[in-house]
Write a structure and sequence with these properties.
single chain; 293 residues; nine-stranded antiparallel β-sheet; five-stranded antiparallel β-sheet
């Protein structure tokens, strides 16, 4: 486990998947990040690349040949080498190997930089195409946050607030939890809504190209909050594992480049709706931030 810190916050990152494992407000010794309780969800903040969520039947085609990938791709299952470390920042570098190329047949690297300043953590992914052909991919952030933060609170005390009013559309969801290509309106000229478990009965709420560039997780019991900024990302998803017999106890805020697979899509990976690409020898950079208080 690798730790970085500022005067206000302390962040731990696991080398397995370069996954954030803790975000603490030091003055209160208050943990904001979900702590991998296997009764609910065994991750805390995986790095989805080169897919988000699951492929149909965990399979896809690259140049006519079938490949398989587990949920959220390949980075989350690999030990990611540490290449740079300072008190307030750390950098990991994933390199596609012969092993991982059996799932994703490209020469590529993904540099993951984590930096803290005051009460903010910045997460920057740089995707390098080292191949001689276009590199097709999706990428996302996937941090999960504890709710409620304190005893005596309830998940129903928490609400989301965009930074501006939204004419918000979301992708429709199949009963299998997969996206459908049609869209439905979530709200009109509003910016906030309360968390309710039933909203996640069919998995994620996937907002289509919101005009806001940040979203807040707040509550009516105290002044603590989380702000996730996602300028430069295409879509934004909110997710929690749904169980009708258990209370809602975590929520993930996911900036998406593209989106997860549409239900029943079985064509070429490069032809998927929302897929991005990097040309040979080039790179693309994405940054999202998490602020706590």
């Amino acid at each position: 486990m690798i730790r970085i810190e500022s005067e206000q916050i302390q962040v731990d990152i696991d080398e397995l998947g370069a996954q954030i494992s803790s975000i603490k407000l030091k003055s209160k010794d208050l943990e904001f990040l979900w702590q991998k309780d296997p009764q609910y969800w065994t991750s805390s903040a995986p790095v989805p690349f080169p897919i988000i969520g699951r492929l149909n039947e965990n399979k896809t085609l690259f140049d006519g040949k079938e490949y398989s990938m587990r949920s959220n791709g390949i980075i989350r299952y690999e030990q990611i080498p540490l290449v740079s470390r300072e008190k307030n920042q750390v950098e990991f570098l994933f390199t596609n190997t012969s092993k991982t190329q059996s799932n994703y047949p490209y020469e590529c690297r993904v540099k993951l930089n984590f930096q803290v300043e005051d009460n903010k953590l910045s997460v920057t992914a740089t995707i390098f195409n080292d191949d001689e052909k276009n590199l097709y991919y999706n990428y996302a952030g996937h941090p999960g946050f504890r709710i409620p933060l304190f005893e005596g609170e309830n998940a129903n005390d928490y609400y989301f607030e965009f930074d501006s009013n939204e004419h918000a559309f979301i992708y429709s969801m199949a009963s299998t939890g997969q996206l459908l290509p049609n869209k439905e309106q979530f709200f009109e000229n509003e910016r906030r809504f309360f968390l309710r478990k039933e909203l996640f009965k069919n998995e994620a709420i996937a907002f289509v190209k919101p005009t806001s560039t940040s979203i807040f997780l707040k509550n009516i019991r105290n002044c603590h909050e989380v702000k996730v900024s996602f300028d430069g990302f295409d879509n934004l998803a909110l997710w929690t594992p749904y169980n009708k017999d258990k209370e809602l106890c975590l929520i993930c805020i996911e900036p998406w480049i593209g989106h997860s697979d549409f239900k029943d899509y079985s064509g070429e990976f490069k032809n998927r709706d929302g897929v991005s690409f990097v040309e040979p020898g080039q790179q693309k950079v994405y940054t999202y931030t998490i602020e706590i208080k």
